[in-house]
Amino acid sequence: MAADLPRRVVIIGAGALGSLLAARLAGAGVSVALIGRAAQVRAVQEHGLQLHQPWRRALTLRNLQAVVGWSELAAEEIAGIELAVLASRVHETQAAVAGLAAELEPAVPLVVLQNGVGGAEIARAQIGQRPLLAAVATLTVTQPRPGVVRCLGHRGGLGLAPVQAPDGVIARVERLFASSGLATLVCADYRAMAWSKLLLDMLGNAVPAIVDLPPERVFRDLALCRLELAAFREALAVMRALGVAPVRLPGYPVPALAAAVGRLPVPILHRLLPYAIRRGSGNRRPSLQVDLDRGRRPLEVEYLNGAVVRAGRELGVPVPANALIHRTVTAMMQGTIPRRAYADNPHGLLAPMR
Domain spanning 196-353 has what CATH number? Predict the structure, then answer.
């Protein structure tokens, strides 16, 4: 590892993305402290962090710390931290940033690595002059059980953008991530990066979760495909109103995708998208479908379709498809709509749009 790169990193959030980054950095010789929930921490402490990657032997990383909170780290261990990465969900940002702000020197940079829109802004409002970067991941990663992370396929990497950080900090973080073998692309505008990732995360996520069908089957249904495309096009309209354009992300030419979905006739997309969805995600269940089935709350729909709804209303952009999707998922989460209300009648979801 190059001498000018951060030698000790703390990662807050031991979910799939946080665990993958911890494993890759530890494998590259970086000293890593991973802060997570008790089950994950206990598994890593007892058995190491297992990393499974395609066409490679599984690795078990034991050269990292796993703790449930800052209080388990010694003062000298905290003092040595040169970079913090927040890999939690957006709704956990405020508490996580408050915790690290109380422990780390103000000069230690923070990278906010999340799905959805809004986390970087929440962090920025709390951290004063601390260098802040936003990041997104376009890798397909799962966590089948605590202490195990699985990367599916070679496609994708990390997008990185400054929120408030000098060029030297951005370059160091980019080189650090790249040194772990993760393809890393620096974007000039963190908002464009986050909204571009939102476009990817929206497709084949909430609608399959609501009707409890695989994404490929949703896109093969013309009526449901129209709803998916309407929501995507509303997000594009919101982006135009915000003055941000889609940008390329590692492994994903988002501008080309946005142009195709935004302009091609629905019947053509109805034929093309099932194959693209199957190629991109295989048989993997969408994240919102998993969350609804597990009863997890709050859901990331708040920072995907919900973000489109809030921005659309603020900017005067009509967003009826996203409003319907957001409202329905939220009602399912709260129990006011049964989980399988549309499983046997998926077109019933479309009634408010007629």
Answer: 1.10.1040.10
